[in-house]
Amino acid sequence: MSDREPPYDPYIPAAGNGGAGGSSRQNGDQRTAEIQNQIDDTVRQMKNNMQDLSERGERLDSLQDKTDNLAVSAQGFRRGANRVRKQMWWKDMKMRVCLVIAVIILIIVIVVPAVVATKH
């Protein structure tokens, strides 16, 4: 049983690579370190992306709240504008009615004495 080879593991470099095990191991360690650095950079970038996404979500929520408030304010403004428009319409109608009454009274004041004077 001692002639059994250990099971193949792709992550452990083979000892029989050209007879220079030390050099091969050093290259493997360097390659592993480079890959680990790339993984660390990727993980760091993903964490930054997640944080940015979270901040964006918060900004979107804030923007949604502001939009809702603006819609409510616009509806209130529309109601107020309609109320003012109706008030101004009534005020204009009252002014027109007063002018018509004043003109009628003026015509009566001028015409009645002229008619009475022509009858005598």
UniProtKB/TrEMBL annotation:
GO cellular component, one term: membrane
Transmembrane segments: 95-116
Region of interest: Disordered: 1-34
Domain V-SNARE coiled-coil homology span(s) in chain numbering: 31-91
A Pfam family that the UniProt record links to this protein: Synaptobrevin
Keyword Coiled coil: yes
Coiled coil: 36-63
Domain of life according to the entry: Eukaryota
Keywords: Coiled coil, Membrane, Transmembrane, Transmembrane helix
Listed InterPro entries: Synaptobrevin-like, Synaptobrevin/VAMP, V_SNARE_CC
Family annotation (PANTHER family): SYNAPTOBREVIN FAMILY MEMBER
Record protein name field: Synaptobrevin-domain-containing protein
Taxonomic lineage from the root: Eukaryota, Fungi, Dikarya, Ascomycota, Pezizomycotina
Organism: Talaromyces proteolyticus
Biased composition regions of type Polar residues, renumbered to the chain: 23-34
GO BP of this protein: vesicle-mediated transport
Keyword Transmembrane helix found: yes
